[in-house]
Amino acid sequence: MSKNNLNAVTKTVASLIKSLSTRNKDIVSRRFGLKNGKKETLESIGKSYGITRERVRQIEEFTLSQLTKVIPNPEVEKYASLAKNILKENGGVMKEKDLFKVFSGNDSESVLNASLVFVLTLDKDLVRFGDNDNFHSFWAIDNSVLNNFKNMASSCISLLEKSGKVSTEEEFYNLIKKNDVSGLSGDLNPRHLATHLTVSKIMGKNIFNEMGLVSWPEVKPKGVRDKAYLVLKKENNPKHFNEIAKLINSAGFQGKKANVQTVHNELIKDPRFVLVGRGMYALSEWGYKSGTVKDVLVDLLKNSSKPMPKTALLTKVMNARMVKENTILLNLQDSKTFIKNNDGSYELKKA
Questions:
Q1: Residue 333 carries which DSSP code?
Q2: DSSP string covering 60-128, please?
Q3: At what angle do helices 3-17 and 111-121 cross, to 10 degrees?
């Protein structure tokens, strides 16, 4: 929009509220942030007037209903029509900050954006959904689209909870389509999913562009351990803690750089990681178990119904630990734990 048109929004609002009583005008101005761009709570306004927050809410509601009765207003209709066109181009739902960006070129709190919200609130079709634990503030073209969006969002989250793992946007889109999840206007399309991701506080993407719940460490890592888990899972191979630190620092995570020694110290404490060699770590979910080479040998022989040949032991231990053959053979020389049979096989020494 041109600068003149943008400035006209505030003039439209001033014209709309000029006939209100002093108190009602002040209350709606403060509730919407029409004075300085900052919205005030029902409670803070109530305290300044010595009335309850519920009474402030009633005055706000009454005032808006009175203003709505004098609509149609050509200026209000102009901005509402423009908002509807923008929403249509974006599938019918849009994060409020994104709508501000298109309207005014600025998504921060301002008198101009507050005035836009006020004007659009007076339209009979447009619906604003306020910020809460599940969503950022967003606008829907009408109540029908709003309800469809909320149903779609609920279905998406349920499917993610059921799958329990991150997926690419394409994989997840195919999953929700397979489960007959409806879109914002009936038919589902990828744009609806993209909109949900911008609006949702529960779903999100990680730095590798994989989708999941923000409560998952793979989507929103909280510290060095989670970041290490994410990069190691992405690599899909055991790595030295030095390499893991480098991967964390080059991945694009927010926050300070990971210290090599800190990474080593944190991985030792976390059961998600298994030390499989000199400074080499793997994920326990890959089938690795904690313990020394001797512990691995004991576990293999304990779970075997008969003595195991040396070659089989070497192969299995080297699959579980990144060590040299000599290290395994040295451990097998522990006569207090292992017995070497005449045929070269090994078994555990009975207590």
A1: T
A2: HHHHHHHHHHT---HHHHHHHHHHHHHHHHTTTEEEHHHHHHHHHS--S--HHHHHHHHHHHTSSS-EE
A3: 60
Q: What values do phi and psi take at 308, rounded to 5?
A: -110, 140
What six digits make up the tokens of 92? 């019918």
Q: Which of 197, 233, 238, 229 has the alpha carbon at shortest distance from 214?
A: 197
State mean pLDDT over 128-137: 94
Distances, alpha carbon 318 to alpha carbons 50, 274, 315, 324, 328, in Å? 76, 14, 5, 8, 8
CB crowding 36-69: b at 16 or more within 10 Å, else e: eeeebebeebbeeeebeeeebeebbeebbeebee
pLDDT class for 71, splitting at 50, 70, 90? low
Strand-pair partners of 212: 204
Calculate the average pLDDT of the chain: 89
CB atoms within 10 A of CB 321: 25
In 3D, which of 132, 2, 36, 19 has the Cα closest to residue 73?
19
Q: Are 258 and 252 in contact (CB under 8 A)?
A: no
Return phi, psi of residue 213, to 5°: -85, 140
pLDDT, tens only, 13-37: 998 899 899 999 999 999 999 999 8
125: pLDDT strictly greater than 60: yes
Using CA atoms, how far apart are residues 299 and 130, in angstroms rounded to an integer? Answer: 57
Q: What angle is formed at CA 138 by the lines to CA 135 and CA 140, rounded to 5 degrees?
A: 120
Per residue in 256-266, pLDDT (tens digit) is: 899 999 999 99
Distance (Å, whole) CA 212 – CA 130? 23
First and final C-alpha spacing in the chain: 85
Q: What is the mean pLDDT of residues 300-306?
A: 90
Cis peptide before 309 (omega within 30 of 0): no
